[in-house]
């Protein structure tokens, strides 16, 4: 169980993050309602997530499949869950079966995982799943994601050959230490323009998942529609609880 003081602090931090996100959108003339704050709750206990839920938040993200499918059934069904980061193809069906209210996967980084997700959606008979293609904008070999030059090809594959998936946009993590730079964000917005042109999509309806605790305001100012904020809301991670 999370201590009451920690829970109260997290709820206060959430309200601060949401306010900062709205102000960042307003600074550049964007509609704040088009910006989603994904509260990334990996390694955090169900009781703490529930406290944030009770404060009015509904959008949460998890990174590790086993932890995710353990926690999600213990929480309300109206949560909008997001899976963030690299997903192993052989865990696609496990994830979807364990989290029926999964709204979006941020992190399709190849045709194989896209195909596995597509088949899993079909076999489970659930509604089509929104997915974002993950782009490696930093050039680091350790980062998942396709190279910017391959983005259109993968987006086209999802759009044309995965009828149970809804290609919704692009995602990036950024630099090796998980920070990002304006160059990372600019690369992703350039990729958005290329994909929209190739697929005939409107940039207004295109999702960009970029920006984390240290840079989410800058990401919003540069066009992000999903910011993934964890430690600023929940406090430092306890990676001793990590499960894949």
From TrEMBL:
Reported cofactor(s): pyridoxal 5'-phosphate
Domain of life: Eukaryota
Molecular function terms from GO: pyridoxal phosphate binding
Keyword Ribosomal protein: no
Modified residues (N6-(pyridoxal phosphate)lysine): 42
Keyword S-adenosyl-L-methionine part of the UniProt annotation: no
PROSITE patterns: UPF0001 (PS01211)
Domain Alanine racemase N-terminal as annotated: residue spans: 24-237
Keyword terms of this UniProt record: Pyridoxal phosphate
Family classification: Belongs to the pyridoxal phosphate-binding protein YggS/PROSC family.
Function noted in UniProt: Pyridoxal 5'-phosphate (PLP)-binding protein, which may be involved in intracellular homeostatic regulation of pyridoxal 5'-phosphate (PLP), the active form of vitamin B6.
Annotated HAMAP family: PLP_homeostasis
Record-linked NCBIfam families: YggS family pyridoxal phosphate-dependent enzyme (TIGR00044)
Name of this chain's protein: Pyridoxal phosphate homeostasis protein
Organism field: Raphanus sativus
